[in-house]
Design a protein that fits this description.
Blueprint (H helix, E strand, L loop, with lengths): L2 E5 L2 E4 L4 E8 L7 E7 L6 E7 L5 E3 L7 E6 L4 E6 L8 E8 L13 E2 L3 E6 L1
Amino acid sequence: QVQLKESGGGSVLAGGSLTLSCSYSGQPIKWSYIGWFRQAPEKEREGLALVVIRGTYKRYADSVKGRFIISQDNVDDKIFLTMNNLQPEDTATYYCAAARNTDYSLRDVAYDYWGQGTQVTVSS
């Protein structure tokens, strides 16, 4: 059974940091890459970063480049998103998702499996 589960969300003051975790299981050998997305109320879902599973290629959206870092633990099958200098506009529900293609895209339509999301709230 394919499963992705996010954790690590919470409330933080502006300027603070959080690290989100995405645990994945099921058929990861058939997956190509995992990405992180976020969606704020009344806004479209935004792709933030992706990493090739058990690979080295990473890609970031311009909006988070230099502030967010994606990494992975190949032993425990986890993908992390470390978010630094968080601002109120980063408040959203954050999702991880897995893709089987090799497009290495940050568009949500490229992804096949999704987690349930974890809430991040940044207050000023």
